[in-house]
Amino acid sequence: MVSQVRARSEQAKEARRAEILEQTRVLWAQARYEDLTLQAVAQRVGLTKAALYGYFPTKESLFLSLYETLLVRFLDELQRHLRLGGRHTPDSLSALMVTLLGEHADLTRLIPHLASLLERNISEARAHDHKHWVLARLGPVSTSLEAALPGLPSGGGVGLLTYTQALVAGLYPMSDPAPAVGAALQDPALSALCVRLDTALPTALRALYTGLSITGPGTAGT
């Protein structure tokens, strides 16, 4: 009887945690990271800020959990496409990645904050759990990538996904500059420094995937 009560309590807690993450996602779609406060999240879900701390003690921990939630959705969708799409070339794989990243814009916007902010204020235990969780989630998709992209070596799928995230982390902020920088880049003389994600990301991913697959059967020994 006691265990049943505890189970219901735990289920209720998990349901509330999921609701907090979903409402954070809604707010995140409308605001920059620096402008979104825990107070705003608490008000959105009808909690006091102190009660919210019982689920997520810091803003970083909240958004790290949101990142994990969004990453699962992205990887599930990528896995579905890989299972249906057969073999890929660097061009077709980069096109698929760009399309999915566009459809999962909440994750794309959050990726640049991962290493610079979200992982900076967590415990060693949380970091250990998070990284092992990521590795486990990447595993199945990595295997599918290695089957889909000829020349990608065994184990290379994790690297491909990691480098893809690194490119997004670097290119997205450059394509969404601060207002003063954006105004400065309106100068035609600075056009070479302007970065547009819709053109820069496909080019960068295509080059990355080509480089990772150059040891394929057609190039072995060259």
Automatic annotation (TrEMBL):
Alphabetized SUPFAM superfamilies for the sequence: Homeodomain-like (SSF46689)
Keywords tagged on the record: DNA-binding, Transcription, Transcription regulation
Gene3D superfamilies reported in the protein's UniProt record: Tetracycline Repressor, domain 2 (1.10.357.10)
Residues annotated to bind DNA: 37-56
Stretches of the chain forming a coiled coil according to its record: none
InterPro entries in alphabetical order: Homeodomain-like_sf (IPR009057), HTH-type_TetR-like_transc_reg (IPR050109), HTH_TetR (IPR001647), TetR_C_34 (IPR041483)
Residues in HTH tetR-type domain copies: 14-74
Protein name: TetR/AcrR family transcriptional regulator
